[in-house]
Design brief:
Layout: E1 16-19, H1 25-30, E2 38-41, H2 51-63, E3 66-69, H3 83-96, E4 101-104, E5 107-109, E6 113-118, H4 124-141, E7 146-148, H5 162-173, E8 176-180, H6 181-191, H7 195-201, E9 207-213, E10 216-219, E11 222-224, H8 233-246, E12 251-254, H9 262-281, H10 283-288
Parallel strand pairs: 1-2, 1-12, 2-3, 3-4, 4-7, 7-8, 8-9, 9-12
Antiparallel strand pairs: 5-6, 10-11
Length: about 290
């Protein structure tokens, strides 16, 4: 299957990035410009936004490469794809030169928005259904969609493993992977599997970039993907293992609430860079990082 081409004018992200939240607009504009390498935004939060927020957002988009990470595409849901939304995302991507558009391999609507990211059954029928919807989005966008492996807490039905499902969707739709390292860790605890085995079972050659985040410890055997705390050491270690397999791909720190001062977030961004540098230097340096 032929891959869709990305326009040559787009600047690809590199290094370590940070998710943009409105409360960070002022601090990001005031910080040392080299503190982060790229930004990620939810396009739904910025389509058609003007005024002071719109001006600040576009200032940052001129300063840094920006990637789009959506919240409401509903790629696995029963409702028709919102093609108006996809076209609006495409227009925003063109305006700010966003390198790609990523979304969650979940569903989030059924006769109306559910305001949650819910798991799709791991079945062959669902693979064909989701892949067809991905191709519809890609036809509009004119580039591959990037899908994130999602966290989930109960699985409605499965005829295949999570990794097999993800692999089948990516292969049939010819889309790309957003590798969320924290989601692997959370799911590994909640569903009792080895995170490294899961990592190695994914089609890692399709990985476009990586997410890392914190989570909430509900119990020893129940973790909740909140993006509301600092990244813990086992997740950092899993990121290091991902770099051993993939090299230091662009990596985005997610923090959605309980936002600390920007300086604390930048310390985590700096740790991403440290691990990336160690991966470039070789296995011995990575072991010391």
């Amino acid at each position: 299957m032929r891959r869709l081409l990305i326009p040559e004018t787009i600047v690809e992200p590199r290094g370590a990035g940070l998710g943009l939240r409105r409360t960070l607009l002022g601090p990001l504009l005031s910080m040392e410009p080299t503190a982060v390498d790229f930004l990620e935004v939810a396009p739904e939060n910025w389509i058609g936004v003007g005024g002071r927020f719109g001006r600040q957002f576009r200032q940052l988009a001129e300063r840094y490469p920006v990637v789009l990470h959506g919240l409401s595409l509903d790629i696995g849901g029963p409702d028709p794809i919102d093609t108006e939304l996809v076209r609006s995302v495409k227009a925003l991507a063109a305006e700010i030169g966003a390198a790609f558009y990523s979304e969650h391999l979940t569903y989030c609507a059924a006769g109306g928005h559910l305001y949650d990211l819910l798991p799709i059954p791991f079945t062959e029928e669902a693979v064909h259904y989701v892949a067809a919807r991905v191709r519809q989005v890609q036809d509009i966008m004119g580039r591959p969609l990037v899908l994130e492996n999602a966290s989930y807490y109960a699985q409605p039905h499965s005829d295949m493993s999570e990794a097999q499902f993800i692999s089948a969707v990516l292969a049939e739709s010819d889309c790309e992977l957003l590798l969320d390292v924290n989601n692997i860790y959370v799911n590994a605890i909640n569903h009792c599997y080895d995170p490294l085995d899961f990592l190695d079972s994914l089609p890692l050659e399709r990985t476009r970039y990586i997410h890392i985040a914190g989570h909430y410890d509900e119990a020893e055997d129940l973790k909740v993907d909140t993006h509301g705390t600092a990244v813990i050491d086992p997740v950092w270690a899993l990121l290091e293992q991902a770099y051993r397999r993939l090299g230091p791909l662009p990596t985005l720190l997610e923090r959605d609430f309980n936002l600390p001062p920007l300086a604390e977030l930048l310390q985590e961004v700096a740790r991403v860079r440290q691990l990336q540098g160690a991966a470039l230097a070789g296995p011995q340096a990575a072991a010391r990082a």
